[in-house]
Design brief:
There is one protein chain. The chain has 226 residues and is of the alpha/beta class. The strands form two sheets. Strands 2-1-3-4-11-10-9-6-7 form a nine-stranded mixed β-sheet, sandwiched between helices. The chain has one domain (3-225): Rossmann fold. The termini are close together. It has helices at residues 15-24, 67-77, 87-94, 151-159, 218-225, and strands spanning 3-8, 28-33, 44-47, 81-85, 101-103, 111-119, 135-142, 146-148, 165-168, 187-191, 197-200.
Length: 226
């Protein structure tokens, strides 16, 4: 049985959603309060979505200073699998595990809707159950999802297959029209150089049950189990 840990901050509101998805796939999951100083042995660490500390100062900035984050950073550097979703992506950037920045959405409005993303790389522990070029319908809900980075880093991401998913339309076309938040090159998620840390704005846990939506997000968790 695989073990997972979900980090919980004041203001997290997708922590239970991810816990339900993990439980469905029979992960042995622990909910870890941000003030803890020790992480249990985990096959997967999840930094969930929500509005940690009410997004005061800057999304994810205060959460990145929490006690448990030094353990998460240490685990990430040792090769543990870490998944940051939405606010979790913002936190992973703020604590330096991923490079770049997540700026205000280009329309300066909070966006909550279903979008499509295209699988651009399936050679990783997170996406191996998906077909290359597959289009997934997932959900986004964010105010700061507009990914930005330096030109050099963007080239590094593109050249080394470190962008596994990009926003696209229903037919898989990646263009400005299918970009919901202004994100550079339609980026919806990125890896670190060793592909053990994934940050993504769309919510796979919201698409893990046909009764609620669809099961397009399940492949991510099945890939990790694989």
């Amino acid at each position: 049985m695989m073990k997972s840990s979900v980090i919980v901050f004041p203001g997290s509101n997708c922590d239970r959603d991810i816990a339900v998805a993990l439980k469905k796939l029979q992960f042995k999951n622990s909910m870890i309060w941000h003030k803890e100083t020790e992480l249990p042995k985990s096959d997967l660490i999840v930094v969930p979505g929500g509005f940690s500390y009410g997004d005061y100062l800057r999304s994810g900035a205060i959460a990145a200073k929490s006690n448990i984050l030094s353990e998460v950073v240490s685990a990430g550097k040792k090769g543990s699998l870490i998944l940051g979703i939405c606010n979790g992506f913002q936190i992973l950037i703020e604590c330096g595990l991923l490079k770049g920045a997540l700026l205000r959405n280009s329309g300066l409005k909070f966006i909550s809707k279903d979008i499509q993303v295209k699988i651009l790389s399936n050679k990783s522990k997170f996406f191996n159950k998906y077909e290359l070029g597959e289009v997934l319908k997932l959900n986004i809900a964010h105010n700061e999802g507009n990914y930005f980075t330096s030109k050099d880093h963007l080239n590094e991401l593109e050249d080394n297959e470190l962008i596994p998913i990009k926003y696209c339309d229903e037919n898989g076309k990646i263009n400005l029209k299918s970009n919901p938040n202004g994100s550079m090159n339609n980026i919806a998620g990125i890896f670190n150089n060793t592909k053990n840390i994934l940050g993504m704005m769309p919510h796979p846990e919201r698409m893990s049950d046909k009764i609620l939506s669809n099961e397009n997000g399940l492949g991510l968790f099945l890939s990790i189990m694989n």
